[in-house]
Design brief:
Elements lengths: L1 H27 L3 H12 L6 H9 L5 H30 L5 H30 L4 H20 L2 H11 L5 H46 L1
Helix pairs in contact: 1-4, 1-8, 4-5, 5-6, 5-7, 6-8, 7-8
């Protein structure tokens, strides 16, 4: 269990770090003014700060708290959940690798495990970010369809190969290896939904402020 938890935690953290690197490349390509602002910011902060160190060593300011949240969810949710789930599937469906057994496991996994875990993932991430349950639900509602459609185009094929060809002892490791890219995608979804949520909140506050000002005139 501990090994599964630490493996999932490491892979999810790696996926988020990969996503941050890709996001940095995309942002850095937008304008040269960003580089000037970054240089000014670097000049005004201690050279030993974590942001300054990561900027020098890996080329971008790594958000350690964001990666830490993925590590926690991997250790506390993904690893333990799928460790138990795979064992339970073997007991109920069987350990064979024939087409019928594999198809049954893939169907159960995608119909039950994937939506359950994905829902818990979004609420766990929102909780770690300090969001309320209502805000967590709103964020999940906004990205649920996109996430489930993307997952349907990816995970059934991964799981079919996993159950058919990977030895039982290595299935969670294989799942995590395939999960690096998926977790990079999930990191992007979570980050985007968080940014959209913040923008919507700022717009609401601005509208409320404007309405208040208009009423007082």
């Amino acid at each position: 269990m501990f090994r599964a938890a630490m493996t999932s935690a490491s892979v999810m953290a790696a996926g988020d770090a990969l996503c941050q690197a890709v996001e940095h490349r995309s942002t850095a390509a937008l304008s040269s003014s960003t580089d000037r602002d970054g240089a000014n910011a670097e000049a005004g902060e201690p050279s030993t700060s974590y942001r300054a160190v990561t900027r020098r060593t890996i080329g971008f300011e790594h958000d350690a708290e964001r990666t830490g949240r993925f590590f926690i969810v991997g250790a506390g949710l993904h690893g333990p959940m799928f460790h138990r789930a795979f064992r339970h599937l073997d007991r109920v469906v069987g350990t064979g690798t024939c087409a019928k057994t594999v198809a049954t496991k893939v169907a159960v996994g995608h119909a039950v495990l994937f939506p359950t875990y994905t829902t818990m993932f979004f609420f766990a991430m929102s909780g770690l970010e300090g969001e309320t349950a209502t805000r967590a639900y709103e964020r999940f509602r906004d990205v649920a369809t996109e996430t489930f459609v993307s997952g349907t185009a990816y995970w059934p094929f991964v799981n079919a190969f996993n159950f058919a060809y990977v030895p039982r002892a290595g299935r969670l490791l294989f799942l995590n290896a395939c999960g690096v890219c998926w977790n990079a995608y999930m990191s992007h979804v979570v980050s985007s939904s968080s940014s959209a949520s913040g923008s919507a909140e700022e717009t609401t506050l601005f509208a409320a402020s404007s309405a208040s000002s208009s009423g007082s005139m």
